[in-house]
Write a structure and sequence with these properties.
With about 200 residues, the chain is of the alpha+beta class. The protein has helices at about 1-25, 110-115, 170-180; strands at about 45, 50, 60-65, 70-75, 80-85, 90-95, 105, 125, 135-140, 145-150, 165. GO terms for molecular function: L-ascorbic acid binding; metal ion binding.
């Protein structure tokens, strides 16, 4: 099992670099613009299990959140339960599982790199009353020593930087330490680094 998970993670890391290249090109940046940010990266695969819940309306598998990474790639089983917040339709939209397909979310780091041209999706996982659910997310993290800031090519007088630079390792450590408490903690979310208009 350990070897299978390691192989799965290695393949998704390779896919993540390809996706990062294509997304960078979509912004008019060199495809390898951010590759150096991954020299000491600690990307990971997580195996999520959600048992059946007799009252799914009273429980969430994972509450609303944004991912603190560059990209998240998720394989879902056929039960479903992943939902994305869509303000234009006024609520939560289910991401229906498609056999053999992967779900890709842009994370907070890429939102900052893109100077808000890409948005890190708010999403959650719901439980099912009848069936257990599995998901296998891969989180593509940069190195902990990098400074995260908008790409200089995407900053101009007409479109100034929307974020102050921040150290990814400190941000991630602060976020994981305070993920489950409700108190307001500076430096836990990317909006803490937002530059006011």
């Amino acid at each position: 099992m350990k070897e299978t998970i390691a192989e799965y993670g290695a393949k998704l890391e390779k896919l993540s670099f390809k996706l990062l290249e294509l997304i960078s090109l979509s912004l008019g940046l060199p495809g390898d613009k951010f590759f150096d940010c991954f020299e000491n990266q600690l990307s990971l695969v997580r195996l999520n299990y959600y048992p059946p819940c007799p009252s799914p309306d009273l429980a969430l598998g994972i509450g609303p959140h944004k991912d603190p990474c560059v990209l998240t790639i998720v394989a879902q089983d056929d039960t479903g339960g992943l939902q994305v917040k869509n303000n234009s339709v006024g609520g939560w939209v289910p991401i229906e599982p498609i056999p053999g397909a992967l779900v890709v979310n842009v994370g907070d780091v890429f939102q900052v790199w893109s100077n808000d041209k890409y948005d890190s999706a708010i999403h959650r996982a719901t439980v099912n009353s009848q069936k257990e659910r599995y998901s296998y997310p891969f989180f593509f993290f940069p190195g902990h020593d990098i400074m995260v800031q908008p790409a200089e090519e995407l900053v101009s007088e007409k479109d100034p930087a929307k974020y102050k630079p921040y150290n990814f390792g400190k941000y991630y450590s602060n976020r994981t330490r305070h993920d489950f408490n409700k108190e307001k903690v500076a430096g836990k979310e990317i909006h803490d680094f937002k530059i006011s208009d």
